[in-house]
Amino acid sequence: QVQLIESGGGSVQTGDSLSLSCTGPERTFNSYNIGWFRQAPGKEREFVAGITWTKSEQQYADSVKGRFTVSRDNAKNTMYLQMNNLKPEDTGVYYCNGAPVPISSWGRGTQVTVSS
User: Fold this and answer.
1) pLDDT at position 3, please?
2) Would you state the pLDDT for residue 70?
3) Helix/strand/coil percentages in the chain, nearest 5
4) Is 1 in contact with 103 (CB distance < 8 Å)?
5) Among 9, 31, 62, 113, which is least packed by CB within 10 angstroms?
6) What's the half-sphere exposure (Cβ side, CA atoms, 13 Å) at 110?
7) How far apart are CA 116 and CA 98, in angstroms?
8) Spatial separation of the C-alpha atoms in residues 10 and 59, rounded to whole Å
9) Angle at the Cα of 83 (from 99 to 44), degrees rounded to 5?
10) Pick from 76, 26, 73, 67: which is nearest to 48 by CA?
11) By CB neighbour count within 10 A (0-12 exposed, 13-18 middle, 19+ buried), where does 12 fall?
12) Per-residue confidence in pLDDT tens, the chain, 116 aa
């Protein structure tokens, strides 16, 4: 089974930036559309951003448009999420997986905490 690993989270202040990374096996990054998801305390997991395996299209949740940028480097088997102008409502555990169709069990994710 495909295993994706998230990293890069942390605790920051409102307005700060963070960059997340997601790594996986080569067959993942040469074959699948993948994306970022997040789950805030007490809420369901939600879609944040996605990118096609050809990198030709990106999609974003309305709440992060203009602030977050998703990208991928298939040669490095890595997807990134650059998060700028972070807000407290961006707090949560961030996961990567296939988008829109999951390709892996959900991993541990990486915690992002934004304080005001």
Assistant:
1) 84
2) 97
3) 10, 45, 45
4) no
5) 62
6) 19
7) 32
8) 24
9) 50
10) 67
11) middle
12) 678 999 999 999 999 999 999 998 887 767 889 999 999 999 999 999 999 988 889 999 999 999 999 999 999 999 999 999 999 999 999 999 999 888 888 999 999 999 99
* CA separation for the pair 50, 61 (Å, rounded): 9
Structure tokens at 84: 């700028």
Q: Tell me the CA distances in angstroms from 41 to 10, 28, 92, 104, 106, one per residue in order.
A: 16, 29, 7, 22, 17
End-to-end CA distance of the chain: 39
d(CA 18, CA 40): 17
Tokens 């992060």 -> residue: 64
Residue 66 identity: G
Using CA of residue 15, residue 69, residue 105, residue 77, what is the dihedral sign?
Answer: negative
The pLDDT value recorded for residue 13 is 98
Answer whether 38's CB lies under 8 Å from 48's CB: yes
pLDDT of residue 98: 92
